[in-house]
Design the sequence.
């Protein structure tokens, strides 16, 4: 499991076999399975009920920690339709330089937890970014939105066979006996979130299916203002 949590969540071990801890450890890219979707007419795995519990408390704990982190650094509790870092210090900006009326700077979103809001349902979930994402931008005289780019509605199916394709996961088979190769109950799929990059868009954007706002930047003359997407000022981390 990844920080701020311990090695494993409480229901990882036998006889519970929740797979939530494994989603964020032991893989080159974390499995950001943010919700379970049960298929009518198929058997329900007891391990999946345990995963529902752990997903719920994972989200709850991260939200509580986020509120405490932001308050401790002098911010109000954040919320916007986009991507919110667990602590504001995960997002940094270089000092912008102004040339011919345009600002040039680099934004970095460090590895860690980010709460994103699904634009269709307006529900919020936590995902983990395993490495720092940085991008340099040059903006014109205007207000722009900088955000994470990703796919938020990927369906990952349980794979009942030895051969699985890119939309399937063999570890989602029934492992109530601790053996995922011989217990092939596939009663549920997962929704997955994949973050790929940072991008900048013209204007103020609050709702998009693949673009999740983090910051606003406004260039007016020789003045550059960088704020979080709920308009809290970023000057204390623009270094």
Sequence:
């Amino acid at each position: 499991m990844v920080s701020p949590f311990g090695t494993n969540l409480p229901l990882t071990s036998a006889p519970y076999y929740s797979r939530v801890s494994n989603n964020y450890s032991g893989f080159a890219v974390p499995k950001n399975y943010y919700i379970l979707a049960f298929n009518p007419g198929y058997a329900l795995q007891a391990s999946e009920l345990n995963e529902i519990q752990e997903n719920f408390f994972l989200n709850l704990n991260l939200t509580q920690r986020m509120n405490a982190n932001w308050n401790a650094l002098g911010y109000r509790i954040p919320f916007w339709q986009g991507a919110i870092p667990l602590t504001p210090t995960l997002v940094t900006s270089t000092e912008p330089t102004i040339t011919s009326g345009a600002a040039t700077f680099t934004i970095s979103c460090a590895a860690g937890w980010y709460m994103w809001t699904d634009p269709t349902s307006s529900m919020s979930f936590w995902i983990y970014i395993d490495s720092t994402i940085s991008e340099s931008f040059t903006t014109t005289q205007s207000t722009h939105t900088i955000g994470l780019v990703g796919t938020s509605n990927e369906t990952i199916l349980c794979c009942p066979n030895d051969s699985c394709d890119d939309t399937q996961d063999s570890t989602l088979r029934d492992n109530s006996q601790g053996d995922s190769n011989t217990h092939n109950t596939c009663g549920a799929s997962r929704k997955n979130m994949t973050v790929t990059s940072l991008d900048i868009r013209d204007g103020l954007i609050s709702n998009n299916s693949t673009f999740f706002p983090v910051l606003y930047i406004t260039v007016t003359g020789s003045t550059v203002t960088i704020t979080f997407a709920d308009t809290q000022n970023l000057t204390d981390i623009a270094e």
